[in-house]
Structure formats: C-alpha cells, structure tokens
Design goal:
- The chain is α+β, with helices and mostly antiparallel strands and about 130 residues long.
- It has a domain of about 90 residues.
- A 3-stranded antiparallel beta sheet has the order 3-4-5, with no helix packed on it. Strands 1-2 form a two-stranded antiparallel ribbon.
- A hairpin with a 5-residue loop joins β4 and β5.
Length: about 130
C-alpha cells in the first residue's frame, strides 16, 4: 500500500533508521550525564548537545556520495569511503532534488524532540536531587 511517495515498507525502514540514530543520541546524553554528574545540569546538557551534534554530523558526512559518470543505460555512484558502483537506470526507484525528504525531516524532528525530552528529564532529576551547582 502506498502512502504518498513511499510504500509502508519504505516508511518503516526510514523510521527504523532514524530511531537508531535517536537511540544513539539518547545513549550519548545518558553517558554524558553519568560521566559529568558533578557539574551543573545545564553544562552537562550543553556537552550532550555538542556530542550528539558532532556524532550525527560525522554519520551524515560519511554517507555522502557523488555520481562519478553517466552512461546511456546507467551511472556510476561512489559513496564516500567505498569503491564506485554502477547503477542501471532501471533500478532507480526515485530521484530527489537537493534538501531533505519529508520523511527525513520528520525523523530528524522526532530525534531532536526525543533527545531534548531526555535532556530536560535529566536536568529535572538532577535539580531535584540537588546535583550540580551553579
């Protein structure tokens, strides 16, 4: 069954990919708060945000690729850090212009929201426990 441009299977895969990234981000937040439990909660939140941002930036940078050459029946695509691979035009399901897809934006928004929620919960827990300081 199709929902807009994506099949339900495509959407499930997309959601799972972004849930994995979100889980990694939440794990980073938890680890940072565990390691820096003796500093002010806002400082730990800032360190968490920086660590999650850097981690996501590295992941997205590593998945970049370029079209190396075009032929009549195929093109050659090279993902960063991998050998080039030939892709027949008949195997291309869709082409997207510049920018993120709607699914990617939704996944990114959900990930940011989940990470912010966890950070706020941890700040609240640390504040009520009297951890931190100024």
């Amino acid at each position: 069954m199709r929902t807009g441009r994506y099949t339900r299977t495509d959407m499930k895969k997309l959601i799972l990919e972004y849930l994995e990234l979100t889980a990694i981000g939440v794990l980073v937040v938890i680890v940072v708060f565990a390691l820096f439990r003796n500093i002010a909660p806002w400082k730990a939140a800032a360190i968490s945000a920086l660590a999650v941002g850097v981690l996501h930036g590295i992941i997205f940078f590593m998945h970049r690729g370029t079209i190396v050459s075009l032929g009549e029946q195929s093109f050659v695509f090279q993902e960063k850090g991998r050998p080039p691979s030939e892709v027949p035009f008949s195997e291309v399901r869709s082409v997207q212009g510049p920018g993120m897809s709607r699914g990617a934006k939704i996944g990114l928004g959900l990930g940011i929201g989940a990470a912010a929620f966890v950070v706020l919960l941890m700040i609240g827990a640390a504040s009520s426990a009297g951890v931190g300081g100024n």
